[in-house]
## 1
Amino acid sequence: MPDLRTEAIVLSRVKYQESDRILTLLTPEGRFSAIARGVRKERSKLAGSIEPFTVSDVVLHFKSQNTDSGSLAILTSATMLKFYQNIITDLDTLTIASNFLKAINRLTNDADSKDFFQLLQNALSALNTAEKYQIPLIETHFYLNLAFISGEMINLATDSNGARLTLDGSYNWHSFDRCFVLATDGAGEFNADTIKILRLMTSMPIASILKIKDIHTHLNALNIILRTLREMF
C-alpha cells in the first residue's frame, strides 16, 4: 500500500519502548494503528500534532514486512489542523469527549470509518464551544447517530404495538425494547415535537440542531433517551 496522506484523530495512544508511541488513528479512510517514532523526545516535531482532541494532517507509511512494528503503519508526518483546547479545561466535558473516543474505538474497523470520522469531528467541535445546557444535546446527537451507523435499532417510527407515532400522541420510553409506549392517560414524557427533534438529529449535523428555537425545553425528555444510549455504548 502506498503512503496515505489524510486527516486523523487520535483515538488512543500508548508508550512504546524508550521514546515511541503506538497510536490508534481514526481517518475518513478507516482506523489504523501506527507507530510514532521518537515522539516522546523533547524536540520531536510530531508530538504536538498527535495529542488527544486534535485533528491533524498525517502521512502514514505502510510496509508489508516490518519486523520492528509488525503490521503497524509508520507515522512519518503530522501537522495539527485543529485543537479543541476548551475540552480539556473542564473535567465533565473532558470525560464526555473521552467516552466518545472510547465508543468509536470499540466500534470502528479498518474498512469503513468515513461516517464515524465525521460524526466524531463534529461532536468534538460542538463540545469545544458548547454552553453547559447544550452538552446533553451533543451527547444525544452523537450516541443516536452512532447507534444508526453501527446498525443498532432505535425505533423512532412506531410504538411498542407497531402503530405509527402520531402528532397528537403522548408517549413514554421503554429502554429495554428501545421504543416508545403510548401513554393512555395522555401524560407521557414525549410529545410529537420531542420525537421530531430526535428524528432531525439523525439527519442534521449537531451545529444545526443546536440552533433550533427553544430546544432546551426538551432536555428532560431527551435525557431519558440519553441514558439508554449511554448504556448501549
## 2
Amino acid sequence: MGKAAFVHLSDGTSRLQIYVRRQDVTGVSNDADGGEVDGWKLFNLLDHGDFIGIEGYLFVTKTGELSVHVEKLQFLAKALLPMPDKMHGIHDPEIRQRQRYADLIAGSLKLERDEGDLTPREVFELRSKVVREIRRFLDEHGYIEVETPMLTPLATGAAARPFKTHHNALDIDLYARIAPELYLKRLVVGGFEKVYELNRNFRNEGISTKHNPEFTMLEFYLAYADVNQMMHLCEELLRSVVYTVTSHTHVR
C-alpha cells in the first residue's frame, strides 16, 4: 500500500467513503489511557469486516463523492473470518437459507445490483412494514388480536400433516397446530365479533426455498358478514398495505 488510500465504511444500509493519508492519520490506542499509536500501521492491519471508529472532516472528491478525511482512527472489533464476496453476494440458495447472517452481510455489501433489486436486509425490513400495516389496518377497523394455542389435542382447521409431540405431565400426544381456525371461531361464538391472529403455523410437508413447514399466517373473522363484505375488506386491506409500504399500488 502507498501513502494514502480510499476505503468504504458500511453500516449495512449505507456507505461512506473515507480517505486515509499516512502523514495525517493518528491512531487511538484501546488502552485505558487512550494514548496515540501509529495510525498508518494500524490502518494497514485492518481487514474487510473490521469495526473501526474515525474522526475527521468532510470533503468532496474530484469525482463528486462525499468523503471523510481521517485524522483519528481507532480499532473497535475484529472480523475473525473472511467476509463473503462483496462484489457479487451469495448465490447458492442452500447457503442463503441456512446462513442468513452471511446472506444479510453479503447482500448489504454487494456492489453489483440490478435496478429495483432488494437486498436481504431490505426484504426483512419490508416484511416488518407489511406485518405492522396489517395489524394497524385491522386494529383501526375494530378487530382484536388474539393468540390461540400452538399445541392442540387434534390437528384441525386444514388438510395437512401435523407435527406430533408428547406432553409428559399430562401423558397425552399433542400436535403443533396447522391452523388457528377452530379456536378463532370459538371466540366468535363467545361474543367477539371481530378477531384476528397473525402467528405461526406448522405443517409437516414439503420444504423448499419458497415453502417452509413453519410459516406465518393471517386469519381473521367478522361476525354477521357475507362473502361480499369479506371480499371488499380483503381488497381494502391489500390496497392499504401495498400503498403504505411501497407508496404506490403496483407490485412486481
## 3
Amino acid sequence: MDDIDIEHVAERSLSDPVLIEGLPGVGHIGKLVAEHLVEEFDSECVRRVYADEFPPQVTVDDEGVTELTAAEFHGIQTPGDSPDLLVLTGDHQASTNAGHYKLTSAFLDVAESFGVDHAYALGGVPTGELVEEYTVLGAVTNADLKETLEAADVEFRADEPAGGIVGVSGLLLGLGERRGMNATCLMGETSGYLVDPKSAQAVLEVLQEVIGFEVDFSSLEDRAEEMEEVVGKIQEMQSQQQQQVMGDDDLRYIG
C-alpha cells in the first residue's frame, strides 16, 4: 500500500457541494455532527482514504468481519436548493505532524475532485469546566465570510482558541486558503472532559442555518439527555467528595 491510498467506492453526483469535516477532536463535536448528518440523510460512502499514518489496526463489525482503518467521504444530496454535502469522518487523525499535512492535502484533493469550493471544519474549544450555555466560535480564511456567521450568532474572539487550531481542522483552513478555497472552522465550547452532544447540536444548528439544509435533531438530543445524566452523577460524586474532605478537615482541628 502507498503512504496514502484513496479508494473510489462509489460515484454520486453532487450539486455545488460543501465539505464538512468531522474527525475526532475535543468533545468529539465534529465527529458527532458528521455522523449525525450521515445517519439522518440519504448518504453514500464515495471515497475511503487509507494511510500508514493511521493506527495499525482493523475494526471488527457485528458479524466479526474486519476492515482496515480509514477515513471516509460520504456524499449527501440535500433536498431543496441548498448545497449538497461531502462529509468527511473517521475514527483517527494522523500520528505525526508531517502526516497531518499529507492527509489534509489528500482530503482537499478529494474535495476538489467533487467541485467543493468551501470547506467547513468542525471542532471544540475546551473551557476546563462544565458548560451551561453553549457558544460557537468561528475562524475563517476570508474576513468577508464573517458577516453570515455572525448573523447565526457565531462569535469571533481575538486570539481564541489559544494556541490556534491544530490537526486537520486547522490545516483545512491553512492549506485550503493556499488553494483558493474558502474555509470556515466552527468550534463549540465544551468542558474537554466528555463527549459533548449538546455542544455538537449547537454547532449543527449554526451549520444548518448557514448552509440552508434542514435536519432532525432528535437522536442528538437523546444522546445529550443521556450525557446530562452522566454529568449529573459526576457532579453528585464531586459534591460528596468535597463534603468528605470538609468533614476530614474539621476532625483535624478537634482537640
## 4
Amino acid sequence: MTIDYEKKDRVRIMTFNNPEKRNALTIKDFLEMERIEEEFKADPDAWVLIMTGAGDRSFCAGADLDEAIGAVTSAEVKLEPRAKRWFSHCYKPVISAINGYAVAGGTEFILLTDIRIAAEHAMLGIQEVRWGLVPLGGSLVNLPRQIPWCKAMEILLIGDRITAQQALDIGLINMVVPKEELMPTAMKVAERICENGPLAVRLVKEIVMKAMSQPRELGFITEMELGATAFKSEDAREGPMAFFEKRKPNFKGI
C-alpha cells in the first residue's frame, strides 16, 4: 500500500506515499482509502483528519495511469454508478494540506475536504479532457457547487493547471503558506477544531451537507431535528458550565 495513516492525539493524518509517481494511487490504494475512511469515522478518539502527500513535490496525481487505464479499458474494473465518493459522507472534519501538484484525482480529493491549506508552490488542475477522459471522482458535481460556474467550467473544459494563489483568489482553498509552514499550519487548524465540542462539530457538518441538497424550508427542519440532538449530550452541559466557571471545557463527544 502507498497510503500511510498516523495518529496524533485526536488528529489523524493520511499521507499519499508514492513520491516516485507523484503520489499516484493504485486500485488497491483506492480500496485502502475506503478502509481508512471507515476506520476514521468509527474511531471515537479521531476528531479531525489531515490529508496530505509525501515529500514536497506532489500532493496526489490521482490514479496511477499505468494500471488504471488498462484495467478500465480491458473491463477488469467496471465503472459502476456509485452515490458516494471518498469521504463524501464523512461528517468529521477533513483538512487537506496541499504540498505540491494536486492534479486530476488529487484535486478531486481536495474538493471533498472542508478546510484547504496549500503550499505556495502547489498547483491544482482537473486535466482529464486533455487526454480524452472524463473525471469521475466527483469534480463534475462538486466543483460547480463550490466556486462560480464560469470558473468551474474554465477549469474543467480547458484543463489547465492553476496556481495556489489563483485557487485562493477564486475561493477554492482557504490559505496559502510557505511549504515549511504547511503541516504546522494544518495541525494548528486541526487542534483548534479539536478544542470545540466534537459532537457539535460533526452535527454542524452533517446538517450543512444534508441541507445543501434540500429545499430551503426542508433544510431548516433538518437543522432543527439534527441540531436539537446536541442539546441532550453531556458536552452541551459541559460547555456552558465551563463558560461560567471560566475554564476550558473538557469535551468527550457524548
